[in-house]
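Lecture 7 notes: from sequence to structure.
We start with the chain below.
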Amino acid sequence: MTGREFLELDSPQQRLYLERLKRMEVIQKTFNELPKADQNLCNHGSYFLGANASLCGLAANNFFRNILHVRRASLVSALPMAVIPFLSTAAVYEVFVREPLFSGELNCEVCAVVRGGLIGAVVGGLYPIFLALPVNASLAARYSSTPLPGKENLLRFWLATAQPVFRKMSLGVLIQVLTGLYLATKHHGIYVKILQQMRTSRDPEELQA
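Predicted structure tokens for the same chain:
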């Protein structure tokens, strides 16, 4: 049993895991030596993308309320449209862009930039619009602000209702795409700066990492 545990601890997977932990420690140590502007951009950049998602959610919510003539429960519809897109966008960007970059798992600049743009478009731009539709549809049905069609015409009705909102929100989605591309590009540039500092480090253990 002891020999088996020793072999497991000395397995290639274990060595790779330990090397990865060591590399992450070196990256974090080098990151702490960067200028405060770079650190703030890395630590809080996703919040900016999330704040834009909140604005998209509030704008889409307002458009749907006007189309459906919903005049009540403004806070009830606005609160989730501000909070949920913010948290979702920031969390998804952290998981799929920032953390893989600064843990050494994502070294491809194109991959990082594409991820940033997709997250900005899908999670930060389109998702708030899709989220606003059922929120305001339920309010319109509850307060009878707009006559709703039968089941046979329901899909056509909501497609016609959502189409002008998507047109109006196209600029917001584009801004989110550009914001995601910008953040991912800047974050990858900071990651490259960290690698350059690691290469010029005097510590031989950091050079091997």
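Points to note: The two ends are 32 Å apart (CA to CA). Residues 1-7 have pLDDT under 50 and may be disordered.
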